[in-house]
Amino acid sequence: MRILLVEDNLTLAQSLSRALTQAGFTVDTMHNGSDADSVLRTQDYALAILDLGLPKLDGWEVLKRMRARKQRMPVLILTAHGSVEDRVRGLDLGADDYLAKPFDLSELEARARALIRRSHGLENAQISCGPLWYDSISRVFSIGDAPLSLTPREHEVLEVLMLRGGKAVSKDALWEKIAGLDDQASADAVEIYVHRLRKKLDGSGVGIVTLRGLGYLLQAK
């Protein structure tokens, strides 16, 4: 899943981006509020992780503009203070969660996973589609008791389809949810990943179907 990290401390931003990438996320990083506001106007993310003390445009204003544009993606606020006043102000502006610095990376990853899961209306960490199971904590897919071996991109495509809960996702929307700003490939690459996934799911009792004009849908057979 693709997330936006907005943090002006370059060392911390690099560390967080590296950790989140290792946890399986595609991460776009911005270092000031103005750039974050610009990219949020055109890009779709599963989650925004937003520092408050940003140059050019502070985190409060970035959040305020997001919600004014009716963008519903979950927002996790990073703050050096974590005062009650800051928490109340952030929640009133539409933040979904808070994390005060310093924090443990494992907690950040856990909160990110939980926010993404809840944004799809899912409360349980384990999700199923027929015999296919997905553990959103370990981020492991399995068919029955057997783990499913996937490349990172195959995993991302299948994760998007699984979290959509039986709703079709267009090729372009799929690509936007997994590809970073620096990705050199195009949305046509999705067709390759879907083809490979179909082969790996063949005979399992679950598959990816193409709905003309709508996109791809994961469903039990």
Structure description:
Pfam families: Response_reg, Trans_reg_C. Keywords: DNA-binding, Phosphoprotein, Transcription, Transcription regulation. This is Response regulator. This protein is of the alpha/beta class and 221 residues long. The protein has two domains: 118 residues, Rossmann fold, CATH 3.40.50; 95 residues, Winged helix-like DNA-binding domain superfamily/Winged helix DNA-binding domain (Arc Repressor Mutant, subunit A, Orthogonal Bundle), CATH 1.10.10. It is built from eight helices and eleven strands. The strands form three sheets. Strands 2-1-3-4-5 form a five-stranded parallel beta sheet, with helices on both faces. It has a four-stranded antiparallel beta sheet with strand order 6-7-8-9, covered by helices on one side. A hairpin with a 2-residue loop joins strand 8 and strand 9. Helix 6 crosses helix 7 and helix 6 crosses helix 8. The mean pLDDT is 91.
